[in-house]
Amino acid sequence: MGGWAIALHGGAGDIPRSMPPERLKPREAALHYCLQIGVDALKAGQPPLDVVELVVRELENNPHFNAGKGSVLTSNGTVEMEACIMDGNTKRCGAVSGLTTVKNAISLARLVMEKTPHIYLAFDGAEAFAREQDVETIDSSHFITPENIERLKQAKVANRVQIDFTQPTQKVVEKASVLSLDSQDGTVGCVAVDGNGNLAAATSTGGLVNKMVGRIGDTPIIGAGTYANGYCAVSATGKGESIIRATVARDVAALMEYKGLSLKEAAAYVVEECAPKHTTGLIAVSAKGEVTMPFNTVGMFCACATEDGHSEVKIWPDDPLC
């Protein structure tokens, strides 16, 4: 085994290099902060499953990312959050969708895994289970930020459902100059491995801006947006429908298991050859302590660290933060 490793992401998409500092800096700071939390937890000997839940909870509580507090809005102006968590050794997993009052969707997903005979609960059933388990809930207005109200207006003006980070059309620019014109950057996730090769993955999201009520994306679907086994742990981000069709997360593991590819080779192949261009990013770690963070979008908010001292925070392919 190659020691512990961790990676996290805050969404992939059309992230402009011209993003104003007041919007960019808080996201960079959050990546650094959450990475350090994860590193400290791994160094303290916490299991990878605990580490990925811990990091994703922090990302959910940050309003600058599209999960939890920062979740984007449906076409009705409501939030419907979803999340998934998976343990690599046992392949036990839990997923939730359609949450409107649960503060941390990822923790409810873990409870589905640990406290029920099922894998996936959604909408009213998931909310009822949260109350049964005394999970922290909060009025849905907590999740509806002014920025995401503006982003929904943008999407409606453009008459489109949009990825978490989509640049405005000229029609939006002309009609909605008062709006914040950068879309919310996306889905959050974390993958981790300890020194014994134990793996875990977790992903959480608010979905797409202006999505239909009831729409479910790739995040809670095992093998699409989230997957972990004895070879690797993967969390994907981007256009959910494309990620589902390409079974992105499972394909990375399958290429390692059946073709003998390395983690970096498998992840690169899936992102460049299987997923459509401009749709997908992912983070992954292997049982050997390898880490990779490929994407075919303009950028992806991501960070990683390994036991041998390597650490990076990255947004664009040639990012000087690397």
Can you give a write-up of this model?
The chain starts with a strand and ends in an 8-residue tail after the last strand. The strands form 2 sheets. Strands 4-3-2-6-5-1-11-12 form an 8-stranded mixed β-sheet. Strands 7-8-9-10 form a 4-stranded antiparallel β-sheet. The radius of gyration is 18 Å and the shape is globular. It has helices at residues 21-43, 48-60, 105-115, 123-132, 146-158, 170-175, 240-245, 248-259, 263-274, and strands at residues 5-13, 81-87, 93-99, 120-122, 188-193, 199-205, 226-228, 232-238, 280-286, 291-292, 299-306, 311-314. It is an alpha+beta fold and 322 residues long. Residues 169-185 have low confidence and may be disordered. α2 packs antiparallel against α3. The chain has 9 helices and 12 strands.
Put simply, the count of helices is 9
Please identify the structural class as seen in this structure: alpha+beta
Count the beta strands: 12
Strand portion, in percent? 15-25%
Distance N to C terminus? 25 Å
Lateral arrangement of strands in the main beta sheet? 4-3-2-6-5-1-11-12
The H/E string reads EHHEEHEHHHEEEEHHHEEEE
Q: Rounded to an integer, what's the Rg over CA atoms?
A: 18 Å
Shape: globular
Q: Main β-sheet: number of strands, strand sense, barrel status?
A: 8 strands, mixed
Instruction: Calculate the mean pLDDT score and round it.
Output: 92
Q: Would you identify the regions where 5 or more consecutive residues have pLDDT less than 50?
A: 169-185
Helix content: 25-40%
